[in-house]
Task: inverse folding
């Protein structure tokens, strides 16, 4: 059992939407991570058969499905918006793909399957209602139940939790993980949030600008990204990127402070939580800047600094503290958590020695 | 559609607590009463003998007669004309909506060569006065044998009603996210099956509103219907214009015909009144 994409390319009006996308998904969850407009949804639509690619092929269990029409493919799709059939009850919504299934499925089996997935998604009490009488989270549960009931080879979940609030998202994600982890289907789960990929801890594909940037395990990409787009896609809050020529302390530049890692100009990448207000030892690299803004998000604070050459730096620390606008401050980068990227190609020169 | 309706309800609900004007109920009924004067007068005329109608002013009739209604039901010229009108209006409604549904779906969902021009052209069909089409219809219908047939009138009225129906339905269809269509395709529905089983129930209020407008336009249209018919398919509106006989004008019977002509409109409005508001909210009616 596998879903394989080979060299998928989609160009519309001279604009490249997908470029040479190849990957193989095994049964279980494959997470597709990338910022908005990276081509995740387009790729999902191509995989579903809603858009025909200009080049490349899709094979499911070794069979090329390129010529199979959408309705004859063994695939289901869940949208970010909660899409259900408003005129049908929840029960009929879930049963609808089974009723048009070829070969025919008996009434009893349909009833069994609907009851089973409804129980799995905890919507058993809602089966008689219309989707419009449900909350957003419940509506999405119905959509997911419909995609599950069909037992298709491929399940495509396009940012299914993006329109839900934080608590519901956590809860439903855990449930999805539990439901799909022992399923025999290939589940493609797209998200813009790296934390979701890390939480699912499964096969992850990072996309950016219509290309697959890296393919592997989420944690691997978090600690050893191949290039800047992957590092950015796997960082939330966003990764800091500053030039190695930036003055560190006194006359020394960041580059010379890190010359044991790489000799020559490069781009320094560091995550906000790897920068501290106090020095923790000789391993830290001091850097000075001016306070622009401090955002308190409850548990932690994001401090935005202006560096020389109008570069910016954001650091995250626990708790809260008052800062005066424009006041000079020195903060400390954790040397062992610094990434180095080639300034031209964006490829990784070195990654942190250990995951942090 | 449900969502936007809820939104509207939600947005306006605080206004329900607006201070109500004193006497507002009275004003409401006064306005209604003024509006109803011609209709009430017509109803009163239909139950008074012709002599009384002409003899002088009286609000409450001192004599009642139901001769008008009896004649209307028993005289072939009248009930036949009434049935003719009902027949071609109904036929026209069925044809127009059936034809407009796939067209509106195509305009809403697909882009094709000249789609925007074609959609605008639909509207321009309503810009010419009906009289313009009298001669071609008269001549053409005589040639193909559709003259003086209810089917002929039904088809002629489609000239106005199909564009209108497409225009209204397109608004309703565009209110439904395209993802629903895609979900159905992925679920394994063929387009015709999806259209009948899932799509039509979703836009049934739109279909109701469209059918109402088609029926009403066809029902009240006089010029074309009269020109392309003579005796067999004569519409009620035409019958009402030919009431002078050797014994003078039968005012009672004429009023009765007027009352009867209002009835289908009243019934139609009663059935679609909920949906009409929805249609207005979607901005196409």
Result:
């Amino acid at each position: 059992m596998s879903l394989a994409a080979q060299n998928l390319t989609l160009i519309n009006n001279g604009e490249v939407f997908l470029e040479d996308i190849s990957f193989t998904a095994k049964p279980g969850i494959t997470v597709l991570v990338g910022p908005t407009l990276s081509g995740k949804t387009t790729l999902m639509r191509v995989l579903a058969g809603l858009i025909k690619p200009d080049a490349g092929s899709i094979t499911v269990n070794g069979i090329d499905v390129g010529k199979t029409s959408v309705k004859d493919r063994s695939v289901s799709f869940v949208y970010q918006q909660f899409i259900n059939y408003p005129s049908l009850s929840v029960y009929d919504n879930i049963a609808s793909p089974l009723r048009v299934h070829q070969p025919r499925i008996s009434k009893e089996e349909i009833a069994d399957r609907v009851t089973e997935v409804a129980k799995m998604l905890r919507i058993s009490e809602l089966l008689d209602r219309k989707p419009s009488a449900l909350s957003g989270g419940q509506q999405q549960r119905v959509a997911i139940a419909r995609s599950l009931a069909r037992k298709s080879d491929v399940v495509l979940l396009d940012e299914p939790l993006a329109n839900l609030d934080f608590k519901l998202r956590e809860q439903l994600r855990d449930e999805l993980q539990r439901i799909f982890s022992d399923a025999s289907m290939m589940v493609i789960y797209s998200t813009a949030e790296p934390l979701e990929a890390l939480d699912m801890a499964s096969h992850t594909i990072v996309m950016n600008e219509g290309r697959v940037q890296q393919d592997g395990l989420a944690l691997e990409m978090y600690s050893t990204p191949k290039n800047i787009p992957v590092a950015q896609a796997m960082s939330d809050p966003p990764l800091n990127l500053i030039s190695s020529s930036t003055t560190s302390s006194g006359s020394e530049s960041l580059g010379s402070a890190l010359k044991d890692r790489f000799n020559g100009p490069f781009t320094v990448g560091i995550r906000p939580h790897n920068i501290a207000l106090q020095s923790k030892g000789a391993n830290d690299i001091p850097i000075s800047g001016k306070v622009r803004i401090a955002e308190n998000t409850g548990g932690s604070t994001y401090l935005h600094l202006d560096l020389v050459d109008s570069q910016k730096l954001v650091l995250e620390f626990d708790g809260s503290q008052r800062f005066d606008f424009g006041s000079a401050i020195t903060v400390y980068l954790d040397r062992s958590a610094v990434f180095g990227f080639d300034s031209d190609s964006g490829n990784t020169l070195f990654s942190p020695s250990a995951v942090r | 559609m449900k969502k936007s309706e809820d939104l509207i309800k939600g947005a306006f609900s605080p206004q329900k607590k607006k201070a109500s004007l004193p006497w507002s109920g009275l004003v409401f009924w006064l306005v209604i009463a003024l509006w109803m004067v011609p209709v009430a007068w017509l109803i009163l005329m239909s139950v008074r003998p012709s002599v009384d109608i002409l003899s002088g002013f009286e609000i409450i009739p001192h004599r009642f007669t139901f001769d008008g209604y009896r004649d209307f039901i028993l005289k072939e010229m009248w009930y036949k004309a009434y049935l003719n009108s009902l027949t071609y209006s109904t036929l026209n409604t069925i044809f127009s909506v059936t034809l407009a549904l796939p067209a509106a779906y195509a305009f809403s969902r697909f882009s094709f060569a000249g789609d925007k021009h074609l959609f605008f052209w639909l509207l321009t069909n309503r810009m010419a006065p009906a009289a313009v089409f009298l001669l071609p219809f008269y001549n053409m219908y005589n040639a193909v044998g559709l003259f003086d047939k209810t089917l002929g009138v039904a088809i002629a009225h489609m000239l106005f009603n199909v564009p209108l129906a497409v225009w209204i339905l397109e608004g309703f269809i565009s209110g439904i996210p395209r993802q629903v269509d895609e979900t159905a395709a992925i679920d394994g529905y063929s387009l015709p099956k999806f259209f009948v089983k899932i799509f039509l129930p979703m836009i049934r209020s739109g279909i109701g509103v469209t059918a109402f407008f088609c029926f009403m336009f066809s029902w009240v249209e006089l010029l074309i219907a009269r020109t392309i018919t003579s005796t067999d398919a004569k519409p009620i509106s035409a019958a009402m214009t030919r009431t002078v006989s050797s014994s003078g004008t039968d005012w009672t019977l004429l009023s009765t015909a007027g009352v009867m002509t209002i009835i289908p409109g009243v019934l139609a409005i009663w059935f679609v009144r909920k949906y009409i508001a929805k249609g207005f909210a979607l901005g196409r009616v």
